[in-house]
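Review form for a predicted model. The reviewer records the input and the model, then writes brief findings.
Reviewer: anonymous (R2)
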Amino acid sequence: MDTLLRTKLSVLFFMVTISVLAQEKKEIRAKRISTAPKIDGILDDNIWQDIPGNGGFHMWRPGNDGVIPENLQTEVKMAYDNKAIYFAAYLYDDEPDKILRQFSQRDNVFVQADFFSIAINTYNDGVNETRFFITSAGTIGDARADQFNEDFSYNVVFDAKISFDSKGWYAEFKIPYNALRFPEIDVQDWSINFYRRSQARNQTHTWNFINREIGQQTQYNGLVRGVENIDPPVRLTFFPFLQGVVSEFDGSTETDFSAGVDVKYGLSDSFTLDATLIPDFGQAAFDEVRLNLGPFEQTFGENRQFFTEGTELFNKGDIFFSRRVGNGPTGSVSDDDLEINEVAEDNPSKVNLLNALKVSGRTKGNLGIGLFNAITEKTEVRVTDTITGDVRKIEVEPLSNYNIFVLDQQFNKNSSLSLINTNVTRNGSEFRDSNVTGLVWNLANKANSYRLTGRTIVSQVNLPGDNIGGFGAEVDFDRIKGNFRYGFGYDLANKTYDINDLGVNFRNNFNNFRVSGSYQIFEPKGKFNTYRFNVFVRHRRLYDPSVKTQNTIGADWFFVTRERFAFGGFTNYNSDTDNYFEPRVQGRFVTFSENVGGNAWVSSDFRKKFAYDLRVSYRNWFADPQENYGINISPRYRFSDKLLMIWTTDYSIRNKSFGYIDNDDTDVFLGQRDITTIENSLSASYNFDPYKAINLRFRNFWSTADYSDNVFFMLNEDGSRSQVAYDTSENDPNTNFNIWNLDLSFNWRFAPGSEATLLYRNQIFNQDEFSTLNYSDSLDNLFGQAIQHTLSLRVVYFLDVNNLKSSSKG
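Model under review:
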């Protein structure tokens, strides 16, 4: 018995020792060099022979369990000088011919290829990282990451190459100091981790151990030693661009030529100024416009690089929505603004941006500071008297200034407290101004087992002759450790809460609660690599008056098998819902009956040449005849490592739904409609290599709202509705909405940071009242409209003043 007890204690001691050792922070020593290596992926430079390798990688995904075999080991070496840091990675594999090598373009690194990545935290704060990637096909990528997000819109100029031989593959990096921000101290205190993804084996290895069950991966970096007394060069780079555009629409041809420049200047090793002067975003991706019958505005994602790159500090508190800058004007020309016989040109869809800048960085005390400023030009509508020919202009948006200021203090390597202020000032007393201030917190205990997050927002809108204040708040408490997790949340806003001048908020006047719990595995179990269940309950109320609007109970689930087949679903039940937004009249509401529904989906193994995603959905209302059906299918085929095509079809039917169509001084009218929607899209890319590609992006969205049953209602004061006759001769709600977009581009990254893009775009739009047309007939009507054809060439060139100095000396 004593022998057995001693054996058990020895085994326990051994397991605890292994666990503790596995979680110790490793150290990598960087060597100062005088001669930089040639970045070609072939690790035959003398400096690499003199630096010892750092190996001993650990399993991370699909789980921490398991030992990395000898034939799949990884070693990394690090060097530096006064210009850059350098890395060499030895990625051994005794079957290199089986390594997947799908080609892709910059930042598209999660494809069917292996990758190696470097995660550098120059402040060793456990939160902020800059990540650099290269795939086994030679595609590079970079991203800014924190505990919750990985932002690939962040782009810096660095160099990396790969090579192969019979022992595996190799990667070599040069990361200039102008791609990093770090404290101005003699001895740098950095942390780092390295990731190796083996796509065919479905494994990811990390240099420093990451416990999947506790905390975030940014908190598990190892340490960098030896980076001392660096004297980095001036951080000043320019990205001048030239763009030429030829556009043809309805027999009229226009040409345009523009030029501008983006500037990056290192105010110090820690702070950077980014500015765009005379910007032109003509080649930004098209917006995915949809038929919008709801009470809220339709918003779109940001496609302009300046507003997506390096903006993580300004997104604290979610009160900055960059599409507000340069969006449509706040004013418009109505019939009341026009004299007899006057006509106005169409109101402009956007306001021109004159310039924008952002300054951001972090002190050695982990205080992040950010300043953003943008100016948009005065915008007018031309008005013509059809009898006299006289012309005048009506201002619909004045010269405007958009400003953000942020302070973000991080501490304990897992927590932060932020103060953010946004301000919009428009020239002239007849236009609205706004000011919004938020306090944001993200607090975790030292054991990383519980987290308290939230925000408190105060808004102030200045209208001609009136100032309106509002407030909103959110708080969430969650257990974030272990297999079983739970949490609760609370959020509210009063009636006058309004952040929409520089933020986006669809609704106010709410007072909501939620409770949730989940169970998930972190190590493969049985047939599954992972699975997760989640249940939740939500209670929604108005803030004023304090009345219930909806109760919801639901669940979702997610499974991934060892063969990389994924499936999951979602279901929920909603009680009777009093919707105070659909009537578009203050204080009125419409009651929707209780309903139940959900969806289910499957996703096949993307490592195979043919793969697919499939989703089906259904919802039924108990006391109304409403029913929703939907199916989304997205097959993909990888013809070769160079050519991938993805087709997506989304088909949905909403039978006998009802919603707002009109109101007068006293009554609100609703209509019953059948809504049919078909959306088809195609994404195709042919990659000649990691630097050149032809890309095709197509989308056709068609939707009809058919009121042919002539069932109309008047909204009652208690939220119910009474059927009435409604004259559609002056306000026909029947809608046939069809839009077509096609982009065909050739992209060539001809030098680090430099790129040329030749883009052909055509687009067609049609909206009419022929809601009974089928899809084919609606397409015929669509192609009867004038087509907008656009051909543009844009060239961006990267200039580093240090290279210019070297050239002048030579």
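Findings: DSSP finds five helices and 46 strands in the chain.
Further findings: The two ends are 82 Å apart (CA to CA).
Recommendation: see findings above.
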